[in-house]
Amino acid sequence: MTSDVSAMTVRVPRPAARILLVDAQARVLLFRFTPADRAPLWCTPGGAVDPGESYEAAARRELWEETGLDRDCGPQVARRVVDFLTFDRVEVTADERWFRVDVEHHNVSGAALTDQERELMAEARWFTRDELADWAEVIYPADLLAMLEETDVHAPK
């Protein structure tokens, strides 16, 4: 029996830190990305962990770079391993660690966006839970509403 190794996709490991940024009205911040090779999608702040960086340090850095907030993101609240195609067209297996940051209010400013983020990030928007439930475009992760509800128990009151 022969195997066709060329048909197998070799995925690159990608550790990543993602943030559930929630305001006092229980809305979550999402960014709309508009890549040329797929439909627009919305996702939370976050990104790849740099070599030698901890997930916690990456979460703080990504939060600052993408929103302008500089603060400790606290403990990890979720973990998931997912396969996807990056905007650079690299097949990855992402080991995502999720953090929740609650704020009273925040005006988003991309403090240090990459060139790619400036090109692909069309807007930032605070979503209510009702909007998440039936939004017309793709929202990542698909179970974001459930993640928010699961982490609500740990949120400051």
Automatic annotation (TrEMBL):
Instruction: Extract the signal peptide range.
Output: none
An example molecular function term from Gene Ontology annotations: hydrolase activity
A Pfam family this chain is assigned to: NUDIX
Extract the InterPro entries matched here.
Answer: Nudix_hydrolase, NUDIX_hydrolase-like_dom_sf, NUDIX_hydrolase_CS, NUDIX_hydrolase_dom
List the PROSITE patterns hit by this protein, alphabetically. NUDIX (PS51462), NUDIX_BOX (PS00893)
Keyword Hydrolase in the entry? The reply is: yes
As cofactor, the record names: Mg(2+)
Q: Which UniProt keywords apply?
A: Hydrolase, Magnesium
Q: Domain of life here?
A: Bacteria
- Start and end residues of each Nudix hydrolase domain: 12-149
Per the record's keyword annotation, is Magnesium included, yes or no? yes
For this protein, the record's PANTHER family field holds: GDP-MANNOSE MANNOSYL HYDROLASE (PTHR43046:SF12)
Q: Which family does it belong to?
A: Belongs to the Nudix hydrolase family.
Q: What is this protein called?
A: ADP-ribose pyrophosphatase YjhB, NUDIX family
Classification from the root reads: Bacteria, Pseudomonadati, Pseudomonadota, Alphaproteobacteria, Sphingomonadales
